[in-house]
Amino acid sequence: MEHQAGFVNIIGNPNVGKSTLMNAFVGERLSIITSKAQTTRHRILGIVNGDDFQVVLSDTPGIIKPAYEMQESMMQFVKSAFEDADILIYMVEIGEKDLKDEAFFNKIIHAKIPVLLLLNKIDNSNQEQLEEQVAFWAEKVPNAEIFPISALKNFNVPEVFSRIIELLPASPPYYPKDTLTDKPERFFVNETIREKILLNYSKEIPYAVEIETEEFIEDESIIRIRSVIMVERDTQKGIIIGHKGEALKKVGIEARADLEKFFGKQIHIELYVKVNKNWRSNVNQLRRFGYNQ
After folding, report:
1. CATH 3.30.300.20 region(s) of the chain?
2. pLDDT band at 233; cut points 50, 70, 90
3. Alpha-carbon distance 8 to 30, whole Å?
4. Mean pLDDT to the nearest integer, 32-44
């Protein structure tokens, strides 16, 4: 049988469940998941290999109207997802009616490649609402195949993946067959720490944070990590550290537990907090953190 391979790019509004879907497809927790908008900031590839296929999945930031330089950069990751896709997954949730950017929506309905519209979170709906939503989206995106799913409960997800394999073009693999993602280890350290900050802090704090892992030393049985949490203001630094360092300690404990599962090794992690004023609006700083590529 001929080998098939292709890029499957997942787009949609924030909080629609793109990262949950990607992790379900890959079988690993590559993308961080929280209930807060803008959890995904970068384009993350997850690679699924079979004997005669390779699916390269791309999880992109949720589509928003950019308010500052970092968000502009995040939307560039989404634009790039249109350019190399062999199959496009447009993800919506029950009750949703439109995409936050009309230009992206026009690209979807005029796409020359297969489009799968996944109606997610159907476990939050009834049969009547589901039928109304399927009819609504069939009219709005007539070029799409529609799949009602629950990414969280894995309902209909294997069926979607089977359809993806059927639609893949004939091609040799793009990546070595033992590759799981295109991102280095430090990226997953950074994302895991950032997830814990999203979960443990409120208001603007999580959005003013970027992580930089300065040291990642792997021995046979232990990985030693030193990471810096960047914030934009001194007041944010105080909040991250917390009373007697308790808040920062909690982040470290939770991140270590997840990283030990991810890497399958003991983790020793040291966290520091530094002020990096207005990094979200500084082009040089954004490039340093992997934006504006």
Report:
1. 185-288
2. confident
3. 16
4. 45
